[in-house]
Amino acid sequence: MLKDVPGLRVSAVIAVDAGGSCEQIPLAANLGGMDEFEVQLSDVVLFELPTFEAAQAFRVRLRSRWPGWSHDDDQVWLFAAELGAEVDDLALLLREAQELLAELGVPAVVFVLDGRSYILDRSEPVYEPTEKQAA
Q1: Which of 16, 5, 12, 6 has the alpha carbon at shortest distance from 108?
Q2: pLDDT, tens digit, for every residue of 69-119?
Q3: What are the angstrom distances between the C-alpha of 90 and each of 12, 36, 81, 97, 135?
Q4: CA separation, residue 118 to residues 32, 83, 96, 135 (Å)
Q5: Exposed, middle or buried by CB within 10 Å (0-12, 13-18, 19+), for 87?
Q6: Separation between Cα atoms, residue 128 and residue 63, nearest integer Å
Q7: Which of 33, 82, 116, 122 is the most buried (most CB within 10 A)?
Q8: Could you give the maximum distance between any two Cα atoms of the chain, in Å?
């Protein structure tokens, strides 16, 4: 978990559901010690992934569009994506990550942006009306 990353300060997480609504959830943890690292993350989205397989899927699917780095450990798999200059780059990254989470069957992951932690839920399938339903 992100609380296990040395120096990362987390006072609350923001839960973001597939519909885009947010809820702040306070945490008891306040980890410290890596101020230089935090400054470097201002244009980076850091995902905490539950398995090596999920980290590998993120690398394969997202790395060509979003450069960054990955870190594998026994207890946590981190995937960092550097945001580009496009105005909607963050939205595109998060939507792509939600779709990938849905494909992997992962309900949600924590991600960090600008020193704040958020929970990203997987995307919900879009149901389109069939001819029978539309009639």
Answers
A1: 16
A2: 999 877 889 999 999 988 899 999 999 999 999 999 999 999 999 989 999
A3: 20, 22, 10, 10, 39
A4: 18, 17, 16, 41
A5: exposed
A6: 31
A7: 122
A8: 62
CA angle 79, 83, 85 (to 5 degrees): 165
> Average pLDDT for residues 42-65, to the nearest whole number?
93
Among 28-37, 73-82, 115-124, name the one with the lowest average pLDDT. Answer: 28-37
pLDDT at residue number 125: 67
pLDDT score of 68: 93
* Residue owning tokens 């909607």: 88
- Count of residues making up the chain: 135
Q: Cα separation of 29 and 15, whole Å?
A: 17
For the whole model, what pTM was predicted?
0.65
> φ, ψ for residue 64 (rounded to 5)?
-65, -25
Measured CA to CA in angstroms, residue 128 lies from 19, 100, 101, 102 at distances of: 17, 20, 21, 18
